Amino acid sequence: MTDSASKVIKTIENTYNIKDGKERAYYSLLKYQLQFRQNYINKNIHVEDSLINYSILYYSNNEDTRNLALSYYLKGRTSKNKEAIRYLKKSEFIANKTNNNSLKMRICGAISTINVDNEDYKTALTYGLKSIEYGKKVNDNETLIQFMLNLSSIYNNVGKYDSAVFFANKCIDYLDKVPPTQKASIYINVAAAIIRSDTIKAKEYALKSLEIRKSNNAYQILAKLARDRKDYAQSETYLEEALKYSPSVDWEAFILYELAQTKEHMGKYKEANIISKKVIELRDSVEHIHARDSIKEIQLAAELDNKKQSEMKAKDDYTAIIVVVLTTIIAITIAAYAIKRRKHKKSMDVIENMEKNMENMEKDIKTMEKHVDNAEKQMDKYRHNIKKLEEKNKEKEKEINAAGKETRKQLAKLKKETEKAKQKETELYQKGFDIYNKVKNGTKMQGWDNEKMKSIVTFYTTINTDFKKQTEQAYTGLTEYQYTILIMKDMGLNNKQIADALGTNDNAIRTMISRIKKRPKEQSQQNKE
Questions:
Q1: What pLDDT was estimated at residue 40?
Q2: Residue 138 carries which DSSP code?
């Protein structure tokens, strides 16, 4: 309860002189955590870095794994992605030494969310499942639901729709136990998960979500349902509303792409073309942002650094063992020698006993020398092991540096290739748009070549992803010519119209369509095998 917590913090500040050290570290941690939670309500609240930096410094020098892990977690949650992943990975490694499942759940959930933002769904799924595993062990329904919704969204992105539905539906049972804003998220995620299997329920949940909170997601779901029932005007209205609530460049590109498709269905080709160009520009921007903010290299470096730290700790443990062994041997030997001396003093009057004691002392000294020799051998062995560890650490450092250099090189190469491919794709798209409109208007065209056919294929599969998906599921190994014929079929042209457009006769078109239908995807794959 942030209001109550805020009052208590102010009372402490006005009443007590907080001492440096343990008191200030814990006070700083609590105040920073309070500001972090208030930041969800009011984004203008300033979260003071100096508070959490003090806590991190203190807990790093004083053994308190729980508070150190929490400090790094909060620092990560209030940082941008690249810095955030560094702090969250540190928090993860430290929290693994504790039994605090609540904190582990939050750390894994936060790492999963950042990987979703970077479209690394494999890593996001791994940490998403971990967050649920830890969440089942604690009594925190609100946070558990948040991560189940995140997991449902990840499964949707990787095409595992049954799993997406499973985790989304589990959240429905908690509707009476969560605040209204979280109810809106539950309704949206369940609607997105069941949109393929239960359109009526999907629409109902999307509308319920809008009653609580306006969001682009809900409007996009309603637009998709309207588009599926060919109510393109309604779909257009919903998508224009969705744009008002777009939270990022990624979402804006996605919404505009759907809007271009809708306007294409409505026959508004000029508007669709303008929007499509905007989509291409936004996608280039998104790819640049993702390449710039990539966290893969940072996560790899964090894993390697943690391994290195573990090996260094092992080396320190070896050294500690050596010191303990030597100290114990010397202490035992000196104690034995002192006891013998006391006995010797007591028997000064007995020469024979003194000589025997002296002989025993000499034996003890020889034994001590033998122990020292063994200890020195053991020292040599440990020194050898330490040297090997140091060599391995140097190799690991080289691997990290090489991995970073190679990653940057690959990113630069990828960026260059992407820009070149995008330029070519834009040219093909524009040319395909012109050809498409001529075909649509019944204009006869001469000199069809692969470039023209590739252009109309590029344009049409961009504006009609459902057609592209269905065609790729049904066939493989299509030529540009065959693909062009299927596109014209999908546009509603008959064989005669297709033949006129391509400058051939309808018998040739009929024969080619017959050949295409005889080569479904399964048969084509068998022929290849």
A1: 53
A2: S
- Report CA-CA distances (Å) from 211 to 173, 219, 226, 365: 20, 12, 19, 89
Whether 357 has a pLDDT exceeding 80, the answer reads no
Please name which of 87, 108, 131 lies closest in space to residue 298, comparing C-alpha atoms: 87
Q: For residues 412, 417, 419 and 421, what is the CA-based torsion angle, rounded to 10 degrees?
A: -170
- Picking from 123, 139, 129, 140, the residue whose alpha carbon sits closest to that of residue 89 is 123
**Residue indicated by tokens 């969560």:** 178
pLDDT digits (tens, 9 = 90+) for 225-260: 999 999 999 999 999 999 999 888 878 888 888 898
The strand ranges marked E within 232-326 are none
Q: What is the pTM of this model?
A: 0.54
Token pair 């990828």: residue: 414
**More confident of the two residues 76 and 529:** 76
Helices (H), 293-350: 296-346
Residue 438 CA to residue 444 CA, distance in Å, equals 8
- Return d(Cα 21, Cα 63) in angstroms, integer: 13
Cα Dmax for the chain: 134
Query: For helices 81-95 and 101-117, what crossing angle results, to 10°?
Result: 150
Neighbours of 260 (CB within 10 A): 22
Contact 78, 36 (CB under 8 A): yes
Dist CA 499 CA 315 (whole Å) = 78
Cβ 160 vs Cβ 148: under 8 Å: no
pLDDT digits (tens, 9 = 90+) for 427-453: 888 888 888 888 888 877 777 888 889
Cα radius of gyration rounded to whole Å, the chain: 35
For a pLDDT cut of 90, what percent of the chain falls above it?
A: 22
∠ CA 519-523-528, rounded to 5°: 105
Instruction: Find the distance separating the first CA and the last CA of the chain, reported in whole Å.
Output: 64
Q: Is 55's pLDDT higher than 90?
A: yes
Lowest mean pLDDT among 117-126, 339-348, 504-513: 339-348
400-407, long-range: CB < 8 A, 24+ apart: 400/300, 400/301, 400/304, 400/305, 403/297, 403/300, 403/301, 404/297, 404/301, 407/294, 407/296, 407/297
